Amino acid sequence: MGKSITHKIIEKHLVSGEMVPGQEVGLRIDQTLTQDATGTMAWLQYEAIGIGEVRTDLSVSYVDHNTLQMGFRNPDDHRYLRTVAAQSGAIFSPAGTGICHQLHLENFAKPGATLIGSDSHTPTAGGIGSMAMGAGGLSVALGMAGEAYFIPMPKVVKVHLTGELTGWAAGKDVILELLRRLTVKGGVGKVFEYGGPGVAALSVPDRATITNMGAELGATTSIFPSDDKTKDFLTKMGRPCDFVELVADEDASFDEIIEINLSELEPMVAQPHMPDQVCKVRDLAGKKIDQCAIGSCTNSSYSDLKNTAQILSGKKTPPETDLLISPGSKQVMKMLSREGLIEPLLDAGARVLECTCGPCIGMGGSPTSGGVSVRTFNRNFEGRSGTLDGQVYLVSAQTAARLALDGEFSDPATWGPAPERIELPDDVPSIRDLFVFPPEDKDSVEILRGPNIVALEDFTELPKTVQAKILLKVEDNITTDHILPAGAEITALRSNIPAISQYIFNRVDADFVGRMKNHGTGVILGGENYGQGSSREHAALGPRHLGVKAVIVKSLARIHRANLVNFGILPLLLVNPADYDRLELGAELTIPAGDMTPGGTLEITTASGDAIPVINDLTKKELDIIQSGGLLNAVRQSQS
Ligand code: F3S
Q1: Residue 611: partners with Cβ closer than 8 Å, 6 or more residues away
Q2: Which stretch of 9-23, 94-108, 423-437, 491-505 has the lowest confidence by average pLDDT?
Q3: Options 7, 13, 65, 160, the catalytic residue
Q4: What is the 158 CA–ligand 1 centroid distance (Å)?
């Protein structure tokens, strides 16, 4: 039986387990990436492990999220990241060099390599055949320490592409179509492996957009073959030696096959406030647009922005419609500048921002109250833009540029000739010198910390019997943005758990933190897909600091589940989803945590004696981690 690309890479990196869907496999990790919002904590954890030099082939610490330096906190954190990377043998990418995923794709990702990153859009590197997964910061810290990364062996879904994109359709529309069909829960436990004759016609940036936003399906990762297009891309990036061909065997078997005819796609849009609320752009014709934002790790490549510049050239956006553009990297910016493509952007009325995440993470560029913001990003969760009632719509770069001119949604049939498909030039400028490579004499590097960097607290073991009240009851599809909102004020506290914990769930229930302080311990009750979205482990660390002992839900998102385990919070799944309605805020629960067996059922009892059956879908190792108070405790125990 032939093998898929996914199986080939996993087999080559397998250190434990068997490739049976659902069973835990341990993978050797070749590369890691961290970004600053999650990275300071990942690096503090790495220091706490006490390993010295990183044991991966390559680890990169990027600064792209919290680049506003409006006080000492962010600059101090950036300095900490630069110095800890230098002492640990990692590469450092300073603020403004670019967005981690765009930079990693351009400069470091390799076909066939394993990569974990403390950012959920790490699968962007799957666009060139890397097995790239988003992970919690602690998992990445352990990866840097040479430890395996453990995941349930995913099912492999082949997305069989035929035809080719026509008209105004773009790579973004492929993933929006998949989100429309499968929803934000449709990819859990799965790798989406692209194949079929349609692959050859998709550029690497289109492929990377698709794998980037596979994260919104909840997928473990997404991956494209490494083929002639990949070879051309790596050659133009000055890295021809990194190319290896990687395709699925002709007779490879897959757990599922999905067909998409690219020729049938047209511009699509994800409507507020979920990436799977997808419809056709033409269905919204006439809706006024207050803001367009082009950029983010999803759509900020040279081809995206060259298309944008060509669409806007010689035209002007209406005064009611703001246009923001954030290039993905200084390499992209240099190419635009060299080709005279910045000027048409400026003349059209655009604000050209730094090469950072910017508006995607609410770092400036928030829409007006209730404003309609059309963005090329990957997420449109409520409040993520920095404006709580902002209405964020997700589209491709060329659709955003065209809509910015109209100032309202319109029918692509009226847009005129479609933009050309952009190829990279042969002489792509290098920005390699902008990275800070570790010095020879690493021991001479002093790690510099500011007052905002607070060492990690020690977490106690999970009690054998947890007695606690439900101190928060939330609905389905709670995102990590609900748990801990993004935005400049809050993320500046990412290295200071006691301070950042004061913001936990404060936009969902402003009294939650107060209740936790009063009671000391508590339980959260949630619905389906709890913890979807960003990989931020502060969404587990914060509740843990406040005293949350267990999260009882209908279902859990993958990375957040891993973060809960890593920080010693017990994730429990309701056997009967209807029990959600029987449990009320304030209900006192007794959880016999000491009696748990891996993957077993457990009965929680309420003060009135009702029994609520729950499952822990935990492995023995995960259970040990939780019972010892978290992964850091478990690693220290195993080392001692
Ligand atoms: Fe940055 Fe937004 Fe991507 S925060 S890493 S551009 S999802």
Answers
A1: 603, 604, 605
A2: 491-505
A3: 65
A4: 26
The span from the CA of 404 to the CA of 320, in Å, is 10
CA–centroid distance, 297 to ligand 1, in Å, is 5
Per annotation, catalytic residue among 73, 449, 536, 560: 536
* Neighbour count for residue 63 (Cβ, 10 Å): 26
Residue 293 CA to ligand 1 centre (angstroms): 13
Ligand 1 nearest-atom number relative to CA 360? 2
Active site residue 624: no
Q: Beta strand pairing status for 114-117 and 570-574? A: unpaired
**What lines the ligand 1 site, CB under 6 Å?**
65, 99-101, 119, 121, 296-297, 357, 360-361, 377-378
- 237 has a pLDDT exceeding 90: yes
Active-site residue, selected from the candidate residues 534, 535, 555, 628 = 534
At 639, the pLDDT band (50, 70, 90 cuts) reads low
Which residue out of 119, 242, 276, 290 is catalytically annotated? Answer: 119
Spatial distance between the Cα atoms of 87 and 84, rounded to a whole number of angstroms: 5
SS3 content of the chain, % helix, strand, coil (to 5): 35, 20, 45
Say whether 534 is catalytic. Answer: yes
Write the CB contacts of 230 (distance below 8 Å, at least 6 apart in sequence): 111, 128, 129, 204, 224, 243
Is 64 annotated as catalytic?
Answer: yes
Mean pLDDT of the chain: 95
User: Which ipTM did the prediction report?
Assistant: 0.99
Nearest to 84 by CA among 119, 52, 37: 52
Please give the distance, rounded to the nearest whole angstrom, from the Cα atom of residue 39 to the centre of ligand 1.
Answer: 14
Q: Is 119 considered catalytic here?
A: yes
Which among 451, 461, 556 has a CA at the least distance from the CA of 499?
451
Residue type, 207: R
Tens digits of residue pLDDT in 38-89: 899 999 999 988 889 999 999 999 999 999 888 899 999 999 999 999 999 9
Backbone φ and ψ of 84, nearest 5° = -70, -35
Pocket test for ligand 1, best of 361, 366, 484 (most atoms within 8 A of CB): 361
- 427 catalytic? Reply is no
402 assigned to active site: no
| Conformational region of residue 314, where left means phi above 0, alpha means psi within -120 to 50, and beta covers everything else | left
What separation in Å is there between the alpha carbon of 123 and the centre of ligand 1?
12
Q: How confident is the model at residue 640, as a pLDDT? A: 63
* pLDDT tens profile 419-437: 999 999 999 999 999 999 9
pLDDT on residue 547? 97
C-alpha–C-alpha distance, residues 101 and 298, integer Å? 9
Mean pLDDT of the 532-547 span: 91
Alpha helices in 474-586 (DSSP H): 480-483, 488-491, 497-500, 512-519, 538-546, 558-566, 579-582
Q: Which residue ranges form the domains of the chain, and what is each CATH number?
A: 5-264 (3.30.499.10), 275-414 (3.30.499.10), 466-639 (3.20.19.10)
Give the integer Cα–Cα distance in Å for 126 and 113: 10
Contacts of 308 (CB under 8 A, 6+ apart): 294, 325, 345, 397, 398, 400, 401
Q: Which of 360, 366, 532 to mutate to test the pocket of ligand 1 (most atoms within 8 A of CB)?
A: 360
